[in-house]
Write a structure and sequence with these properties.
Elements (H helix, E strand, L loop, with lengths): L1 E5 L22 H9 L3 E3 L8 E5 L2 E4 L9 H8 L4 E4 L3 H9 L12 H12 L3 E8 L2 E11 L2 E9 L4 H15 L4 E5 L3 H4 L4 E4 H11 L26 H11 L4
Parallel strand pairs: 8-9
Antiparallel strand pairs: 1-3, 2-3, 4-9, 4-10, 5-6, 6-7, 7-8
Helix pairs in contact: 1-4, 3-4, 5-8
């Protein structure tokens, strides 16, 4: 895995490995978009570390949108609509929850510069969130970046059982409905194995990204509205509709 360490402050270019550990002035949302278009993404060593690591993995985890698997117990739960689902309603809240420490997670890779960068990217219309609500309480969610037909998943959190998994299923349904081609999960982990994540080489990922990023897709935030609109008789907040979209997209292997 290739990584270059930066922090906010000087005028050094990202394309020079000898500048590892130095600082970069004016690194903003436009720079962040450029990283994603090149197949890179930022992380931090820890919540309190102000520097950013620019990551380019040798192996990449992706979730195939045409072969997304939902465990049967989770499928039954989603069909019952146990929570309210929204999109882009509480982006800042979601990323701050993803950055928060918990009993299961004593350290995170999301620091204050990352929160500020993605909040700006959200205001620019590129970063999006899925929220899971229990009445007025935010109990789960995820966020990521959409460019063309690619969605770059970043992080998720859960305060109630399966809340983050439910957010992921509703995200996948939305991406399918909008014609997205690539869902990047960065790395393979045990949490995502149950959904059919696969690992591909850096070169294969770059080839897929080159095609998908040119697609003319829009993140379908409005279709997560609870109230039916003229855009959709079956909003993406409804579990049964999301399950049907995912089932229809599956390609026999």
């Amino acid at each position: 895995m290739t990584a270059i360490t930066i922090s906010i402050g000087s005028n050094i270019g990202l394309n020079k490995p000898k500048n590892r550990g130095k600082t970069i002035e004016g690194f903003g949302s436009a720079n962040l978009l450029d990283l994603y278009r090149r197949g890179l993404f930022p992380m931090a060593d820890g919540r309190d570390d102000p520097r950013l690591l620019i990551i380019e993995p040798e192996k990449r985890g992706i979730l195939p949108l045409d072969n997304f698997h939902i465990p049967s117990r989770l499928r039954r739960q989603i069909r019952q609509n146990p929570f309210q689902i929204t999109a882009n309603r509480a982006f800042r809240h979601v990323i701050e929850e993803c950055a928060a420490q918990s009993e299961e997670r004593c350290e995170t890779w999301i620091n204050r510069p990352i929160i500020q960068l993605y909040d700006a990217l959200h205001r620019d219309g590129y970063a999006h969130s899925i929220e899971v609500w229990d009445d007025d309480s935010l109990v789960g969610g995820l966020y990521g970046v959409a460019i063309g037909g690619t969605f770059f998943g970043e992080s998720m959190f859960s305060r109630k059982s399966n809340a983050s998994k439910i957010a992921l299923v509703h995200l996948v349904a939305g991406l399918i409905s909008a014609g997205f081609q690539l869902l990047d999960a960065q790395f393979v982990n045990q949490h995502l194995v149950q959904f059919g994540i696969i690992e591909i080489s850096k070169s294969e990922f770059q080839a897929k990204l080159k095609i998908a990023i040119k697609a003319n897709c829009q993140f379908p935030a409005a279709q997560y509205a609870q109230i039916q609109s003229s855009n959709s008789a079956f909003p993406l907040s409804q579990g049964a509709h999301c399950l049907a979209l995912i089932a229809q997209a599956r390609v026999p292997r």
